[in-house]
Amino acid sequence: MAGTAPAPAAAAGGAPAPAASGAAPTGPAAAARPDPTAPRPFADVVRDAKQDDGFFPVWRKDEKVWLEIPADRFGKPFLLTANVSQSVGERGLYAGQMAGNWMVELRRIGNTVQLVAKNTDYVASGDPALARTVRQGFSDSLLGATPVASAEHPQRKSVLVDAAFLMSDLLGYSTYLEMAYRLPYGLDRGNSFFDAARADSRVTVLNVNLHYATPRIPAPPLVRPPTAVPTPPSTTPDPRSLFVGIVYSLQQLPDQPMAPRAADPRLGHFTDAYTDFGNEMKPNLRVHHVARWRLEKKDPQAVLSEPAVPITYWLDRNIPQRYRASVEAGVLEWNKAFERIGFKDAIVVKQQPDDAAFDTLDSAHASIRWFVGADVGFARGPSVRDPRTGEILDADIAMSDVFARGARRVLTEDLGARPAALQGLASAFGHRHTERCTFAHEAADEAAFAFDLLEARDDLPPGSPEAEAVVQAYVKEVVMHEVGHTLGLKHNFKGSTTVSAAQLQDKGYTAANGIGNSVMDYTPFNIALAGERQGNFVAATLGAYDYWAIEYAYKPFERAQEPVELGRIAARSTEPALAYADDADADGNRGGGIDPYTNRFDLGDDPLAWYRKRFALSRELWERVQARGARPGDDPLRERRVLASGFRQLRDLPQLTAKYVGGMVVHRDLPGTTGRPTYRPVEPERQREALRFLADSVFSIDSFRFRPEFLAGLSPDFNEWERAQPVSIPSLVLGLQTQALDRLMAAGTAQRVLDLPAYLPTYQRAGALTLNEVYMTLQSAIWRELKQGGEIDGMRRNLQREHLKRVQALLTRPSDLPADALSLVRMHATELQAQLRGAGARTGLTPETRAHLQESASTLTEALRATMVRS
């Protein structure tokens, strides 16, 4: 009869068949009935599948992949990393990037296996009861779950799970896609697949190709929105569909955790930090362990010994042959620092064969690899650490292809801000902010400027051996910087201040000592003024700080003596050659910091002198390219590109110069160790000198005069559909000037200038720079035509409007400006109002100048009359 199941066969040995449907089951046969919901036998699931034995054995059959979970691996922590091997190639979404890592454990709940990320940020050492409290107080996170796919193996007691649970949006990549394009991309599991899988005793690796899609691309708005709307992907054949490659590594944590080393704030090391509730007497519960590789001598008694296990970097097979020797040299340069602390060949370099079965993005191979993108120009040196100790377990340096002459040209096409690539990079993958590195991108701009200027001087012919040598030296410098990150070192943005201008011109000195005290600084190309001696253009070797930082992190000590010995090393921080400051010092909560000696891309022990020199170099480049003129056979974009190159060198100069005003020199000493103050006000005359430089250069239209025929000849690329428009010099200049205005008129600057006398002995206070002097100097420089008479140039009118806009905002809107500063703003605004009225009454002025003066006077009058809405 249809729908009736056949009667079950008799049990072996002649046992009777089970009772008919409806009868109560009785006897042994009923107890032996298989559970239809129970997992299938292990052997049935993997029949005809191929096994790759290892940390988590992998079984693969056709498109199916299973992981074998040994019974003793449940509840035992291991490391999970997820790195991006393929991506979109724009807006911060690039291939070859380390992306995410977690300390995880597998948890079995009935027939479900959960992948749980352990919360390592909060512990309670030494107190089991309090540790239990901490576990209750802070949650773990569920990364994924899947049903058990098999019964236990008869002998090994392991079970299988379908690895497809990793074919998920574990990284949250759909969010990064939405950030870049503002489109709802979702993971399409049906068209995602496993590329490869392998396993060995330490790590199991799964390469997954994930398909992301969006149903439709919205039509562009009929009316242009007030804010820019991101466009859909421009690098894929169909913007609705894209693939992202992920390399998952499931890696065994060290059975014996490395002995952690305490960090010291006088040096700059990446740290693994956590909150330890176990020491209730300690006022600060945060613990910081230095991030470092495990490095132990093969012969502990030898003064100089090879390591038991060297730090090995693999050069990925995708690195262009042209650069491999320089990349290797950049890596091995760090062996000099390790030799000083007793390690011979602490670092080794290996080349990945073209036919290698492994991917250097797996967690078993620290690597250096190239990547490309449509808008990319950076390098990064992140690492993965054991959160228990700070031990570095993997690092993958990503180098964008910015070194070739053609590639660097792409980066300098647009006159304006940095590529959007860096905007996306800033938040992608949740990396710690201290591990974001834009050195290669910024140095690419530096290289472009250097080549343009040296070509204009006929000092470096394109394609010459000399030009190639500079490129290779630049590659080595960037690699040294990024390798330093993967050894555990943070940026050092005070390193350039330890070298004098005379030493920078001494080729013997720069070849032996570099152009600063650390390759972890962002240093510009060391270009001499015309007629000066020329030292090395870039850092050729490690600096004194680099040796010091490696000594602190890696020098072996007896455990009992380690705190004392580390204290002795760190106490050398007062030596001038070991000056150090990090990203937070340079950024100051994104306000640019307060120490004018802590900056990116300055050079020499007098940053203000360097800014004057760099301004002169930009002007020299512009003058030379205008004198040369366009010639048959030139790249159509050549002159536009050189103009942009000169402006890029001035990109941060105004706000860095303005940092002197209200500036404080910062020393990172521990309390009671040196007698030096943490904060020391910048000398008043240096602050005044910075103000004069801004008035005479950045605020002066004479600094930015170009020949009309030069500007008229700045052609776009007529092969492209979307073409650049005529260059607006006033807009570019105003972008520089507003940097200085914003810094000088900021509430933080005002507060520090008002506070500075309190940091000075009584006998020095009379000569201190006052806020009244700052505002008076600024206003006089910007509105000097009101006293001098005559016409006001269009670029000057732009500057004056921007100044007036800020004065108006301070007078009419609530702000953090101190009360004394607001009173001074109002006083100077009243004086300016009277000057504007007087100037507006003059005869013989052009309509543009007359209208500007009338509008400015009216705006200021309304602002002075307005009632501020006070919070």
TrEMBL record:
Residue span(s) of domain EcxA zinc-binding: 465-788
Domain DUF5117: 96-298
Keyword Hydrolase carried by entry: yes
Record's keyword terms, sorted: Hydrolase, Metalloprotease, Protease
DUF5118 domain span: 39-86
Source organism superkingdom: Bacteria
GO MF term list: metallopeptidase activity
UniProt-listed Pfam families: DUF4953, DUF5117, DUF5118
Region (Disordered): 1-42
Name recorded for this polypeptide: Zinc-dependent metalloprotease
Species of provenance: Aquincola agrisoli
